[in-house]
Amino acid sequence: MGAEQSTKPGAMTTQKKAVVLLSSGLDSATVLAMAGQRGYAPYALSFRYGQRHVHEVEAAGRLAAALGAVGHRVLDIDLRAFGGSALTADIAVPKGRDLTTEGGGEIPITYVPARNTIFLSFALAWAEVLGAADIFIGVNALDYSGYPDCRPAFIAAFENMAQLATRTGVSDEEAVRIHAPLIDMSKAEIIRTGLALGVDYGLTTSCYDPDPDGRACATCDSCQLRLQGFRQAGVADPVAYRPGS
């Protein structure tokens, strides 16, 4: 398993440390900014997990630097070994779906099996090593996704498990907290929050199926939700989309 870490030059802090899961999308970028605004020293954690493109990891590095992460680690795990998702297997990414009528409780093929459980487990391990009791994740339950690991019940269950499974949890040390500050926010509210915190959304990428130059498709579920959020927030999306999209 490969790993990379970049740290701000000379970074020393007495702030409380927090691990922040950072994908490269607008949700995780906003959460990273929120962790810093709340007074935490944020340590960003990203993954090469066999996703369809490298643009996500590259964008995460830019965001970690721009938003003041004290450290940024990128871990290599191969979820393509299991597949089961349009993001980790040779399965077409759905395009142009009507998200106002489709779904109906059905879990979309872009769901990566157990991804947030896996990511949070790695974050929990790093938090223990860092001496951090706080983990931030940018899951959101209001906007359509259909992903079971974006629900409040999942976050609460993982937090409870963390108390049972770690030295920190079973000792007299501070209890582990899983922060999901976006969980009840709309995409427009998330965007407005991030803009107020100085997030440059031009550094983010959300598309499930970008072209080789990293330009978004505008029609996958993630692009549709992103574009709708910017429209409702009354601001233009600064990322590049494919010509004609």
Structure explained in plain terms:
- This protein is of the alpha/beta class.
- It has a single domain (3-201), classed as Rossmann fold (3-Layer(aba) Sandwich), CATH 3.40.50.
- The chain is 33% helix and 12% strand.
- It is built from 7 helices and 6 strands; from the N terminus they run ββαβαβαβααβαα.
- The chain has helices spanning 26-37, 55-66, 115-130, 152-165, 167-170, 187-196, 221-233; strands spanning 3-7, 17-21, 41-48, 71-76, 134-136, 177-179.
- It has a 6-stranded mixed sheet with strand order 1-4-3-2-5-6, with helices on both faces.
- Helix 2 links the parallel strand 3 (41-48) and strand 4 (71-76).
Summarize the structure.
33% of the residues lie in helices and 12% in strands. With 245 residues, the protein is of the alpha/beta class. The chain has one domain: HUPs (Rossmann fold, 3-Layer(aba) Sandwich), CATH 3.40.50.
> How many individual domains?
1
Query: What is the number of E strands?
Result: 6
| Shape field | globular
Q: How does CATH name the architecture?
A: 3-Layer(aba) Sandwich
Question: How are the SSEs ordered, and which strands pair?
Answer:
Elements: E1 3-7, E2 17-21, H1 26-37, E3 41-48, H2 55-66, E4 71-76, H3 115-130, E5 134-136, H4 152-165, H5 167-170, E6 177-179, H6 187-196, H7 221-233
Parallel strand pairs: 2-3, 2-5, 3-4, 5-6
Antiparallel strand pairs: 1-4
